[in-house]
Amino acid sequence: MTDNARDIPVIRADHLKKYFPMDKGPLRRSRRMLRAVDDVSFSIAKGEIMGIVGESGCGKSTLGRVLLNLTPATEGKLFFQGDDITGLNRRGMKPYRPRMQMIFQNPFASFNPKQRVGRALMEVGRVHGMSPDAARARIEALMDMVHLPAEMLERSPSELSGGQLQRLAIARSLILNPDFIVADEPVSALDVSVQAQILNLIMELRARLHMTMLFISHEMTVVEHICDRVAVMYLGRIVETGPTEALFSNLMHPYAQALISAIPKADPDEVKARIVLEGDIPSAIDLPAGCRFSSRCPRCTEECLRSEPELVDTGRGHLVACHHI
Amino acid sequence: MTPERTNPAPALLKIRDLKVDLMTVRGIVYALDGVDLTVGAGEIHGVVGESGCGKSMTAKSILRLHNERRCRTSGEILFEGRDLNRLSRREMEQVRGKRISMIFQDPMVSLNPLLCVGEQIAETIRRHERCPKEAARQRALQLLQQVGITPPEKRYGQYPYELSGGLQQRVMIAIAIACNPALLIADEPTTALDVTIQAQVLELLKRLSGEMAMSILLITHNFGIVAEVCDRVSVMYAGRVVETADARAIFRNPCHPYTRGLIDSIPRPGTRGEALHTIPGAPPQLYERGAACPYMARCPRAGAACRVRPEAVEVSPGHVVACHDVKGGADHD
Question: What burial letters (b/e) apply to A199-223, b meaning 16+ CB within 10 Å?
Fold first, then answer.
């Protein structure tokens, strides 16, 4: 991957794992583990938008939270602009907090319903020691950047639409001029025309501010549209990753292929062989030995039941974890 | 506008000028403002539109599931020769679940958590038909099989929380088709499901519609789903149907500027990084019933004529559009 010395990646995950204990036995010694993120490695270069795509329960949101150290990793290393931030506590994270931000799926849930949105935005500056005047000036400049009138700061969240609130959430995430943003399904709760507005805004801001972003989504089409690089996750692991164009022009992992073919296309004339996967996504607790996709894979062989495939480079940074490649 | 031309299948459901006003604490909301909608027998009819356009309200009004004391309803809902708006409560109970059934977005909140799923199916059968317990059980087992839940004997006794979202939605479908309804209303049936599970459920709905000659009114915000499973589509905006056409025609020749705007805002493969088409502004608040076309403020083609609300016009056989700009014919682009 893009791990050359001359350009330190903004964020680098090295064999990151996050396990949640399931049943706490006596002495809290748990046996069963939910392996939400299971050995994930990648890095994001400055100015890059990396997409994580997968179905519910694949660990994509957990991954986002682990990257920001909102929940500590079970194993593995995490580097932020070259600094090892693995396992830092609240105090240790303090200097890094203003440099990383998050945008959430549901804008109605990420604003205090009883607080005017302007105050909610001012709070960010207050917490991180900005003077009120500087914060105000910064917020006004950002309101312009997200194409909202400054008067809107006087409103309360219930008076605003989902699209307007998501713009405000984006503005809020930019107040401290962060180096890294995790956007967790930022357009999933929005209608298609509003979704297009927010995607346009993200593309516009990234061109202007060179934002570095992890963009989490369950929608292949959205990820394809705005990301430079994409990783497809299944049950805690990256099964395929690569530069967007290379990846989507030649999807190799059977899961990635099924995922894209399952998307209903807004084109009735498109002839296609739909791959409909049998069965449900298995649980991330007590995963079997072998490939974790084997229970639903149309190409499963004996080898797949025996050993878990590693990510293998197929050229041009396009990595696939499958025995059949 | 002869029925044979507009609709090859004979109409099963015909909604005419349906208006529903909701009394809320903030005032009257004109939720539905003259909806015209026809669903043919055996047809899968999609209703698309954005949040608040009235698509779920239309579905609820057909079954009269909305709070009738806080609503003012007018217009006709003709179904199997009767106007559902004029039926008594008891007559309506004979229609609901038997001739017309409904499935919802979130199966977890629609199922009874304290009753095993098999019994919930059997209960529906016994509610509508005189049927001994054991026969109802056998029918429920068959239905589980039919919707692809195997092995039925084992699943019969399971509780909703033991099933995944996809299986729960299949149980909902089994309940909905238990009495062989003529019409199934599916309100965003796959929105809460993952895309691979969504594909399974859509395949199932399509197969059942064919097998049972059942019409489906499929409410969705996803144009992809429309293209995949629907025969015909109605696009709704601000409490009205603005365009109705065959599914193919909606994509090939969208005539209403709103339909076109919506379709253009979908990200397409191979256009990475390009700005997406957007519709300026936001849908109107429905606190008043204006005289103008409700889309006027956002429409790129708005003109003086738009100050009067356009009537629906048939621009080609089976393709009906409510826009002044297409009166002459569908020769745009």
Answer: bbbbbebbeeeebbbbbbbbbbbbb
Q: Do the domain assignments include residue A246?
A: yes
A259 with B196: CB under 8 angstroms? yes
Residue A225 belongs to a domain = yes
Query: What would the 3-class secondary structure string for chain B be?
Result: CCHHHHCCCCEEEEEEEEEEEEEECCEEEEEEEEEEEEEECCCEEEEECCCCCCHHHHHHHHHCCCCHHHEEEEEEEEECCEEHHHCCHHHHHHHECCCEEEECCCHHHHCCCCCCHHHHHHHHHHHHCCCCHHHHHHHHHHHHHHCCCCCHHHHHCCCHHHCCHHHHHHHHHHHHHCCCCCEEEEECCCCCCCHHHHHHHHHHHHHHHHHHCCEEEEEECCHHHHHHHCCEEEEEECCEEEEEEEHHHHHHCCCCHHHHHHHHCCCCCCCCCCCCCCCCCCCCCCCCCCCCCCCHHHCCCCCHHHHCCCCCEEEECCEEECCHHHCCCCCCC
Name the residue range of residue A308's domain. Answer: 3-320
For range B198-208, the mean pLDDT: 94
Contact at CB, B266 and A267, closer than 8 angstroms: no
Verify whether the Cβ–Cβ distance B267 to A280 is below 8 Å.
no
**Average pLDDT per 10 consecutive residues for chain A, totaling 325 residues:** 64 95 66 88 95 92 94 94 93 94 92 94 93 95 95 93 94 96 93 92 93 94 94 96 94 93 81 75 81 91 92 93 92
Q: State the total domains in chain A.
A: 1
Q: Does A55 touch chain B (CB under 8 A)?
A: yes
Give pLDDT tens digits for A145-186: 999 999 999 999 999 989 999 999 999 999 999 999 999 999
Asked, as a colleague might, if the bond just before B3 is cis with ω within 30 of 0, I would say: no
A259 touches chain B (CB under 8 A): yes
pLDDT in tens, A180-213: 999 999 998 888 889 999 999 999 999 999 999 9
Residues composing chain B: 333
Question: Which domain CATH number covers A207?
Answer: 3.40.50.300
Q: What is the pTM of this model?
A: 0.87
Residues 6+ apart with CB under 8 A from B48: B55, B220, B221, B222, B223, B226, B233, B234, B235, B236, B262
- Name every chain B residue with its beta carbon within 8 A of the beta carbon of A163: 282
Mean pLDDT of chain A: 90
CB B218 within 8 A of CB B183: no
B223:A200 CB<8 A: no
CB contact under 8 A, A195 and B265: yes
**Is A325 contained in some domain?**
no
